[in-house]
Amino acid sequence: MACVSPGRELGRCFATAAGASFALSWPLGFALLGVWLAFAVLFRIASLASLAAAVAALPLGLYFIGNWPEAWVLVPIAALLFWRHRENIRKLIAGTERKISL
User: Fold this and answer.
1) What pLDDT shows up at residue 9?
2) pLDDT of 38 higher than 50
3) 24: exposed, middle or buried (C-beta count within 10 Å: 0-12, 13-18, 19+)?
4) Are 21 and 102 spatial neighbours (Cβ–Cβ below 8 Å)?
């Protein structure tokens, strides 16, 4: 999985998670894409949008998939995304994270 390999781009981590969510349930994938787009447009910070989608993954997964193991697999995926974004989280706290340029 691209998300685990050292030295990989963080965008690939989110892309892998997004692909997994679409594979689990296409409505879930579109809902998480909507969360990502809303945060990206509102704050213009891709890592913040990715983290927001990761936070929304379990509640939306439970809504679209139900209380099944397939929904709960989103927890370790989100945790891994947070772990891979730890440097971005430091930059967000410091206010130095790069913004999306349009």
Assistant:
1) 56
2) yes
3) buried
4) no
